[in-house]
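Sample pair:
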Amino acid sequence: MMWNRYLSSRARLARPSNYRLASSSTRFAFFTALCKRRHGNYLIRCYMLVKLLYVINVVVQLFLLDVFLGTPFHGYGVEVLRGVFLDDKEWAAETSVRFPHITMCELKIYRLGALHRYAVQCVLRINLFNEKIFFFVWFWMVLVGVVALCSLVMWTARFIYAPGRRQYVKRHLNYVEPVVTEMDERRRKRKARHFVHHYLDQDGVFVLRLVAHNTSTVTVTELVGSLWDNYNIKLLDKDSDVEDDHF
């Protein structure tokens, strides 16, 4: 199984190694070391970085529209709703600040061989559509930013809260291997703690949650059962190696 290979390779990387960092790149090396696979959180850090980039992307686009339109746009939706519902202003009065409906135009007319210039009012019909299009764009970008931010906070909480990871895996283990006696429950509790924090680690639980979001609970339960069986096999092999060494 590919996931077992990944967990095994991460366990090998987690072993201490004798290397020294150059003093000129110590800070950069320390930062990159926090995201390596040996810490068991490489995947979730990359995932959270992408979530953070989603939020930054929305904020940057809102302020880029300020430059594009030549007027403050990042607070457009809030100002329009506040003016219409709180200040009892008309819709046109609020939106015409950024998308004017009427402007002064210079009209040239030739009459009797002479050129006459007139200043008249012109209706900018295109702005009747622009104000509604950009009003929708503002709310869509804010909605995307809020959803991305909530997702980032949710995954950060899951990343930090260790008991939540244990409860998630133990719930699926109860489906695979139900406990019968209290002694079995205590024994399994110790093994499950080591299974979650040292075998699966944060990346393992993270992948299981992603599989649950995209498939079903049954699939995750079967996957946890396979990983649990592989973990028990490795423990038996380790115990047998220790007995052989003593012998």
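Residues 41-100+128-160 form one domain.
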